[in-house]
Amino acid sequence: MSQSNIKFTAVIGFPLAHSLSPVLHNAIYAGEGVDAKMEAIENSDVASLVSLIRSKPLELTAVTIPHKQTIIPLLDEVDEIAKKIGAVNTVVNRNGKLYGYNTDIIGIEKALLRISLTNKKILIVGAGGASRAVAFFLSQQAVSLYWYNRTQEKAKILAKEFGGKVVGSSDLNKIKFDVIVNTTPIGMYPNIGESPAPKIILRKSQTVFDIIYNPIKTKLLKDAELVGAQTINGLTMFVAQALAQEELWLQRKIENKNYENLLIKQL
Ligand code: ATR
């Protein structure tokens, strides 16, 4: 009997009820003829997850909320861009050595390069690991950044690092933002009735980008559509960052076989 050489990969985070990473990555393995299986491992303790990456071993790990920053000191090597961003969403285990990367930045670039950003006033909602990748990308464009976060202290740290001003809820409606980017999980499955931004700040002339992909149309995007704003959902970013993760692991180009459509059927 031939022995299976199946390789194991995972998405790690807490919570993970919303995650379609196993569906997407397993479809990529089927499409590419790779003998591998991704599973979702929900755990709030990042150190025990890293032990599992080493012991199982997990060859590729997609890192999500809330571990993108806290995982960094537990890795053996971190790529220069991921270091600058200050967040890792990808861990490749090469012969027991753990390498950290950030592919969120590739997804963010793909989603945001569709619109003109020059001289735009951009509000980043949130100040976590995903916000860092958004800010890193935007800090390289000629834009004015604004930060809004539940914990203002965290927004202040990011504003110092990437530039921009911190705004409180009472200032939000005083500024005409051209672009709003939600980087928080507010509105994500199962809490689909919530929105991270008050309706009063939404305008027809705006573009609103929500990095959430489950649901595809969040409450924030529905509210934005109602005022006539342009919307960008999280699906393009999700697929682009996942393909880049597989390319880092498999060390070859992975074509996008319209994985967005497969995900739309699941959502
Ligand atoms: P990720 O790595 O996916 O970005 P994270 O680092 O945990 O995850 O960051 C999540 C962001 O969403 C944070 O800005 C967090 O706000 P705090 O800085 O106050 O923790 C924000 N966030 C998460 N849940 C939230 C909630 N229920 N209400 C408001 N903000 C929330």
Account of the protein in words:
It is a single chain. The relative contact order is 0.14. Helix 1 (21-32) crosses helix 8, helix 4 packs across helix 5 and helix 4 (104-112) crosses helix 8. This protein is α/β, with parallel strands linked by helices and 267 residues long. It has helices spanning 21-32, 46-55, 80-85, 104-112, 129-138, 152-162, 219-226, 235-250, 259-266; strands spanning 7-13, 36-42, 60-63, 77-78, 90-94, 97-101, 121-125, 144-148, 165-166, 179-182, 207-210, 230-232. The model has no long low-confidence stretch (mean pLDDT 97). The site of 2'-monophosphoadenosine-5'-diphosphate has 19 residues, from helix 5.
Which features does this protein show?
about 270 residues, six-stranded parallel beta sheet, six-stranded mixed beta sheet, binds 2'-monophosphoadenosine-5'-diphosphate
